[in-house]
Amino acid sequence: MDAIMGTGAYTYRAEENWPTLPKDIEIGDAAAVAVDKRDRVYLFNRGPNPIIVVDSAGNFLDTWGQDVFSGAHGLHIGADDCIYCTDWVDHTVRKCSLDGKVLMEFGVSNKPGPYMSGKPFNRCTHTALSPDLDFLYVTDGYGNAHVHKFSADGKLLHTWGGSGADEGQFNLPHAICCDADGWLYVADRENHRIQIFDGNGKYETQINNLHRPCGLCLSNDESPICYVGEIGPYYSFNRTAPNLGPRISIMTRDGKLLGRLAGDPPAGNNPGQFLSPHGLAVDSRGNLYVGQVGTLSWPSLFPGTPVPDNLCRVRKLTRIEDGQAKPAS
Question: What is the CATH classification number for the domain harbouring 48?
Answer without folding.
Answer: 2.120.10.30
